[in-house]
C-alpha cells in the first residue's frame, strides 16, 4: 500500500490538516496517510528537520513524506519534490531537506511549473496533489521542471578531539529531556580505555547509564537514546527546567589523560 506521511506546523485546532488529507485521498482514495506531527512550532525548520531525520528511515522505502513547515518559505523559495535515500519528499525548498541527510539526491524537480497556480495554502494545493501522484507511481520528472540542486543549510556540528567532545542540545522533548548531537559511535571511539567527565551548566558527571530507571527519582540520568545520541534527563522530572538548559546549550565531554 502506498504511504504518505504528514509533518506540518499547522497545529490540530483548525481545518488545515484535514484539508491536506482530503486533497490526497481525492487523488487516490487508496493511499495510507500517516501523521508524523502537526505540533512543530511555526516555521521551525530546525525542529522539523530533527523530527523527520529521526523517523523517515523507519518507514518503507518508497514512502512519500509531505512536509508543510514554513510552507511558503522566503522570497525565491520554490515548491519541490525530491528523492533521497529511496524515499520521496515534497515541500518548500527552504533548507529543511538539506538538514535531514548529507547524501545526494537521486531525483529533484521544481513543482508548480506545469499550469502554475497562485495559492496561500501550498500544502493543500501544490504539495498534496504531488505527494498523492508520487505515491500512485508517477515519476518526479513528470511533476515539474528538473533542478540541479536544492538548498542546504549548515547544521550544528560536534567538535571532537582526543581530549574532548563539544556538542549542543539540539532538541528539548515534551518531557524536558535534553537531546544532544553527540553520537554514541564517536564517544565509543574516543573514550576507549579512558575515564571521562560530562559537563553541562554547573554539573559534572562521570557515568553514562543504559536506562533512566538506573537513577533514583529526581536524579539526573545520562543515556544514549534510541537515536544513538547523548540524552540528559531527570528521572520522572523535567531536565530542562531543573538544570536550566535549553536548545543550543553546550555539553562537554572531557577525557582523562592516559
From TrEMBL:
InterPro entries: SAM_HAT_C, SAM_HAT_N, SAM_OH_AdoTrfase, SAM_OH_AdoTrfase_C_sf, SAM_OH_AdoTrfase_N_sf. Residues 167-251 form the S-adenosyl-l-methionine hydroxide adenosyltransferase C-terminal domain. Gene3D superfamilies: Bacterial fluorinating enzyme like, S-adenosyl-l-methionine hydroxide adenosyltransferase, N-terminal. Signal peptide: none annotated. It comes from the Bacteria. Keywords: S-adenosyl-L-methionine, Transferase. Residues 4-144 form the S-adenosyl-l-methionine hydroxide adenosyltransferase N-terminal domain. One of its GO terms (molecular function) is transferase activity. Belongs to the SAM hydrolase / SAM-dependent halogenase family. This is S-adenosyl-l-methionine hydroxide adenosyltransferase. The lineage of its organism: Bacteria, Pseudomonadati, Bacteroidota, Cytophagia, Cytophagales.
Amino acid at each position: 500500500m502506498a504511504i504518505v506521511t504528514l509533518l506540518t506546523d499547522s497545529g490540530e485546532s483548525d481545518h488545515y490538516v484535514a484539508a491536506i488529507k482530503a486533497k490526497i485521498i481525492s487523488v487516490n482514495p487508496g493511499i495510507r496517510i500517516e501523521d508524523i506531527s502537526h505540533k512543530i512550532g511555526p516555521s521551525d525548520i530546525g525542529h522539523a528537520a530533527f523530527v523527520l531525520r529521526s523517523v523517515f528511515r523507519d518507514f518503507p522505502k518508497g514512502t512519500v513524506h509531505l512536509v508543510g513547515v514554513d510552507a511558503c518559505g522566503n522570497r525565491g523559495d520554490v515548491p519541490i519534490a525530491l528523492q533521497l535515500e529511496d524515499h520521496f519528499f515534497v515541500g518548500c525548498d527552504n533548507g529543511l531537506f538539506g538538514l535531514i541527510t548529507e547524501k545526494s539526491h537521486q531525483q529533484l524537480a521544481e513543482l508548480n511549473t506545469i499550469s502554475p497556480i497562485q495559492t496561500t495554502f501550498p500544502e493543500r494545493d501544490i504539495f498534496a496533489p504531488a505527494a498523492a501522484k508520487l505515491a500512485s507511481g508517477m515519476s518526479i520528472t513528470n511533476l515539474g521542471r528538473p533542478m540541479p540542486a536544492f538548498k542546504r543549510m549548515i547544521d550544528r556540528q560536534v567538535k571532537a578531539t582526543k581530549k574532548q567532545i563539544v556538542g549542543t542540545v539540539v532538541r528539548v522533548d515534551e518531557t524536558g529531556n535534553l537531546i544532544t548531537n553527540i553520537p554514541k559511535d564517536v564517544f565509543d571511539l574516543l573514550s576507549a580505555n579512558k575515564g571521562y567527565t560530562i559537563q553541562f551548566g554547573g554539573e559534572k558527571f562521570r557515568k553514562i547509564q543504559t536506562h533512566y530507571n538506573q537513577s533514583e527519582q529526581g536524579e539526573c540520568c545520562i543515556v544514549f537514546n534510541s537515536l544513538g545520541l547523548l540524552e540528559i534527563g531527570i528521572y520522572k522530572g523535567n531536565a530542562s527546567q531543573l538544570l536550566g538548559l535549553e536548545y543550543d546549550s553546550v555539553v562537554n565531554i572531557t577525557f582523562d589523560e592516559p
